[in-house]
Model the fold of this input.
Amino acid sequence: MTDEHHILRLIQSHKEFDHFDYSKAVDWAIDLIRQGNETDNVLMLASFSKPIDRFEISPYVTNVLNDLGLEELDYKSAVIAQTHYHLNEILNEREIRKNLKSLYQLCEENDFESGLMTFYMIYHGWDELEELGVNYYFEGADLNNIEEELKKEARKWIDKYVHGNEDESGEQQRTEEKEKTLPTTTAISKRADSAKRNNNTFKKLWLRLIGK
Done:
């Protein structure tokens, strides 16, 4: 799929998310003008500038999509489109951490939906590696390989949820992902005893746990 297709699918998902970034819709409208599409709705959409009021701009996005004969996505399809967009950005080396944060937030907003849990864990694991030098969220990841691990998981997600390629263990994996929780205080405390002997981050880790 082209970047243009990812953007289009993203725009089609706009109504399903309270925190949709409508600046992307404005950029999309400007690109349409460059391509010679200068309908009244496109021109109005392209005229918006920050700060953008979602209630004001949303009808114009809908109108432009209608002009192009495109339907807005239902919620399930919108989540797929949003996730795919951010993963495509990551795989193309564009604002990797920002897009990972968007995936983490999307996971939270979707009640920790199993298909997004991997990116939630990587997000927290990466933060821990930078802050504490240890990672209790994503096994096997360190600062030398976590970006590549993220890209590997991105490709797996796209292959499964976009292309529909899933092995026989897929159902079991979904169940395991759904049941996966953040590390327990007890488990982390035991590991933290070892971390304390290697560095002086135990106090910071414990205070972080108490605050959760």
About this structure: The CA atoms of residues 30 and 46 lie 5 Å apart. The mean pLDDT is 84.
